[in-house]
Design goal:
The complex is a heterodimer of chains A (186) and B (549). Chain A is 28% helix and 19% strand. Chain A has helices spanning 34-39, 52-57, 59-63, 103-114, 129-138, 151-158, 180-184, and strands spanning 17-20, 23-26, 29-31, 47-51, 69-73, 91-96, 120-125, 142-143. In chain A, helix 5 packs across helix 6. Chain B folds into 4 domains: 6-110, Sulfite Reductase Hemoprotein, domain 2; 142-292, Sulfite Reductase Hemoprotein, domain 1 (2-Layer Sandwich); 305-399, Alpha-Beta Complex (Sulfite Reductase Hemoprotein, domain 2), CATH 3.90.480; 413-548, Sulfite Reductase Hemoprotein, domain 1. The longest helix of chain B is centred in the N-terminal third of the chain and has 22 residues, at 6-27. Classes of the chains: A alpha/beta (186), B alpha+beta (549). Chain A: This is DUF934 domain-containing protein.
Chain lengths: 186, 549
């Protein structure tokens, strides 16, 4: 995307760095809330993440952009609302207004296992170290760690607290007893 | 008992390390109160009225003697020398220090125990009949299915932040509901299909608390292979659509009620259709492996029935205990023995450090080294040979664990209440004690027969007051403790929710009210008619009249 400057702006909820696929990288996406879009127009260039309602209302214009577009789901907005559009999206963000609201875990899982969405699934909002492992297992591969927390520590300690899991997940659907032979060598 | 594989043990050890780090970050100020709250709750740690309370998981109530000894030592070293058996078959410590909890967990992990998901808005301990595996009339042993559900629910990444807590119970008895599955978020009934294969009826949306309701039948027959897929389907529907705005409307029972059972079933079946025959499908090999952990112990062929008959003739106190506190076993040479933790003057479910250790020794000598916690806050030794009963009874009596009141009026179920719990509106322990003291004539209590009194200190209903034949609920009225009485609840067949009598009472009135209720029953009962049958025959009015008239 050739952005020289750091596009991070924590005041408007877009952090400078994010965890993607197990590494900390510069954030390439700018996320816009419904409130922001009431007053401001989208910038001409750059990858943007927009709310579901905005996407549905402006689909054609958004698809005509040169740069990538992602959609952010709020709790209560399910992947089903976006199902037909998923092949055209590079990223789906799932917003956690509070980390205790676990709906997004089911949404991520559905994106991966029901809709076979292969793009980036990004957790945004109240995203903290102690939830990353579960989030990763249900299909998130990108995390905007809350701005007041140490993203390095979150990456270091949040993604691998367990080497053992009983259930299958989006990475390996087999339950532990079918993985037993693999575990012996682990 | 389930035998841990290397991976089960490694998981526990990784959990201890994770929780130790979370505690460290909390104490260092790197985690807020609110963030740590959720993490510690998922580990059974509440901050209570006077101190933290740690709830230790006892999967479907099963404890080995080695585990009892560890619980005894932990109770002595980290607590004040006593613990409580909870109504979900767990063990609670009331005085541990927050900073000691990681060490307690490490000690527990060494004997394959933990506190995972004993609290918080996640899938809690799986419970079942305390006579599982020995009850003559069960379809099959439900414990392998409990263990299979336990593993699926443990650290399930999708269901750790549910709208509210989630309780699953399994029952394998056809005409009774000893696991009270009717009032669980999910109740699993083990049944046999027409081809003789194991399957399940799956009930959902039952619960006590503020809105007591009996669950609805959602899955009429789920073949055993698909048990986990079916449960996952229900959980996903609940996780997506359960109410998250109001915690009093967040349990699955509210969702099932709001949608209606048919609509809920439709949503669950749609999820199930996608999961069915997928990787969650249980294999014969894995079910066989888990069943192998719950095989019969090595029962003696020769049991001296005459010795038991003799002791029953010779000793009246033993005779009484035998008839109230021991129950039939599928092996005719054996009985299941209940250790009643309900001695007058003690907190219901109370057990001391040294009692843990002595029970462990007795279990090794008399019951193949195992005991079970019951949801009535007692313990069971499930496999005692009939000719050992007299010797065991004398030892239990010396320990204060042979009060012959199982299922009788003084076998009261009560939550810790306002003496210990910060959620409570009112005390429950002194109410229980008051009733036990009033009805101190054992002959009279035996004559009254089966009678469940359940006491909860608030409407979270930890004492299961809704399903007591007589239920007592602590309520707060302008800062004063009052008690509301319900009659006619039952948790024996399919659960039934008790009916409110009328205006509530002050604490000093409760014992008198209970006595009036009992007197009405005694006046009205037919020969050999238990309290609950009398109530169902004559209804609320005569009781109401005797109390308010």
């Amino acid at each position: 995307m050739g952005n020289e400057t750091n596009i991070g702006n924590e005041a408007n909820g877009t952090p400078g760095r994010v965890i993607v696929d197990g590494r900390i990288v510069d954030n390439q996406w700018r996320r816009f809330s419904a409130e922001q879009l009431e007053t401001d127009a989208l910038p001409e260039q750059g990858a943007v993440i927009v709310p579901l309602a905005y996407w549905l209302a402006n689909r054609d214009a958004l698809l005509a952009r040169a740069d990538a577009v992602g959609v952010c789901l709020e709790p209560g907005e399910e992947p089903a609302d976006l199902a037909d559009d998923l092949p055209r999206l590079e990223l789906v963000a799932i917003h956690f207004p509070a980390f205790k609201d676990g709906r997004g875990y089911s949404y991520a899982r559905e994106l991966r296992t029901r809709y076979r969405f292969a793009g980036e699934v990004r957790a945004v909002g109240d995203v903290l170290q102690d939830q990353l492992f579960y989030m990763h297992r249900v299909g998130f591969n990108a995390f905007e760690v809350r701005a007041d927390r140490d993203i390095e520590e979150a990456l270091e300690n949040g993604l691998r607290p367990f080497t053992i899991t009983y259930q299958g997940d989006v990475h390996d659907p087999r339950p532990v007893y079918l993985r037993r032979d693999d575990l012996q060598g682990a | 008992m389930y035998v841990y594989q290397d991976y089960d043990q490694r998981l526990l050890e990784e959990r201890v390390a994770q929780y130790r780090d979370q505690t460290r970050r909390y104490l260092a100020g790197q985690l807020s109160e609110d963030e740590f709250l959720v993490l510690r709750l998922q580990n059974g740690l509440y901050i209570q009225r006077y101190a933290p309370m740690l709830r230790i998981s006892v999967p479907y109530g099963m404890l080995a003697s080695k585990q009892l000894r560890t619980l005894g030592r932990i109770t002595r070293e980290y607590d004040k020398g006593f613990a409580h058996v909870s109504t979900r078959q767990n063990i609670q410590l009331n005085w541990p220090e927050v900073e000691d909890v990681p060490d307690i967990l490490a000690e527990l992990a060494a004997v394959q125990m933990h506190a995972i998901q004993t609290s918080g808005n996640c899938i809690r301990n799986i419970t079942t009949d305390e006579l599982a595996g020995v009850r003559p009339d069960e379809v099959e042993d439900p414990r392998p299915w409990c263990e299979i559900i336990r593993q699926w629910s443990t650290f399930n990444p999708e269901f750790a932040y549910l709208p509210r807590k989630f309780k699953i119970a399994v029952n394998a008895v056809p005409d009774a509901d000893p696991a009270v599955i009717g009032v669980h978020d999910i109740g699993v009934q083990v049944v046999r299909g027409s081809d003789g294969e194991t399957g399940f009826q799956v009930w959902a949306g039952g619960g006590l608390g503020r809105t007591p309701v009996v669950g609805s039948l959602i899955g009429e027959f789920v073949p055993w292979r698909h048990l986990l897929a079916y449960l996952e389907a229900i959980l996903r529907v609940y996780n997506k659509y359960g109410n998250r705005d109001n915690k009093y409307k967040a349990r699955i029972k509210i969702l099932v009620k709001a949608l209606g059972a048919d609509k809920f079933r439709e949503l669950a079946e749609a999820e199930f259709a996608e999961l069915k025959d997928g990787p969650m499908t249980l294999t014969e090999q894995e079910v066989a492996r888990i069943r192998q952990c719950f095989t019969e112990p090595d029962y003696r062929d020769q049991v001296d029935h005459g010795a038991l008959e003799q002791a029953l003739d010779d000793d009246r106190a033993f005779n009484r205990w035998y008839h109230t506190n021991t129950r039939a076993h599928k092996n005719d040479g054996y009985r299941a023995v209940t250790l009643t933790l309900k001695k007058t003057g003690r907190i219901p479910g109370d057990i001391s450090d040294s009692q843990f250790e002595k029970v462990a020794d007795l279990a090794d000598r008399y019951s193949f080294g195992e005991v079970r916690n019951t949801h009535q806050q007692n313990m069971v030794m499930a496999d005692v040979a009939k000719d050992d009963l007299f010797a065991l009874w004398r030892e239990l009596d010396a320990l204060g664990l042979a009060t012959p009141n199982l299922g009788l009026l003084t076998d009261i179920v009560a939550c810790p209440g306002g003496d210990l719990c910060s959620l409570a509106n009112a005390k429950s322990i002194p109410i229980a004690e008051g009733i036990q003291r009033r009805f101190d004539d054992l002959d009279f209590v035996h004559d009254l027969g089966a009678l469940d009194i359940n006491i909860s200190g608030c409407m979270n209903a930890c004492g299961h007051h809704h399903i007591g034949h007589i239920g007592i609920l602590g309520v707060d009225k302008k800062g004063k403790e009052f008690y509301q009485i319900t009659l006619g609840g039952r948790g024996d067949k399919m659960s039934r929710i008790g009916e409110k009598m009328g205006p509530s009472f002050e604490s000093h009135e409760v014992t008198n009210v209970i006595e009036k209720i009992i007197n009405t029953y005694v006046d009205q009962r037919l020969e050999n008619e238990p309290f609950i049958d009398t109530y169902e025959r004559i209804g609320m009015d005569p009781f109401k009249e005797s109390v308010y008239g």
